[in-house]
Specification:
Strand content: 35-45%
Order of helices and strands: HHHEEEE
Distance between the termini: 73 Å
Number of helices: 3
Structural class: alpha+beta
Low-confidence stretches: 1-10
Radius of gyration: 17 Å
Length: 95
């Protein structure tokens, strides 16, 4: 009888994500954030690790200089940027 892989045994998203990192299918978040700091500087506001169409994807929201909000989708296995969306800071209302 064959044993199931840790990914198959995981019963929730958190366990599946942890198993993917431990098995080497996903880069550790620390590695991704170190690379991100060099290539896309800013304050990390939110990080999610999700499986989309069979691929692990890190979704990261950053606050960059000048108040720009940037949302990046990264291939979690390679760290490559799959998509980048940017919103400029809204001007403050004046009385």
């Amino acid at each position: 009888m064959a044993l199931a892989s840790p990914l198959a045994l995981a019963d929730n998203d958190h366990d599946r994500a942890r198993a993917a990192v431990q098995s080497g299918k996903v880069l550790p978040l620390k590695s991704v954030l170190e690379r991100l700091e060099r290539e896309h500087p800013g304050q990390v506001l939110e990080v999610e690790l999700e499986q989309e169409d069979g691929r692990w994807v890190y979704e990261i929201k950053l606050l960059q200089a000048g108040g720009r909000l940037v949302k990046l989708e990264l291939d979690a296995a390679s760290g490559a940027v799959l998509q980048r969306k940017e919103r400029a800071r809204k001007p403050e209302a004046r009385p």
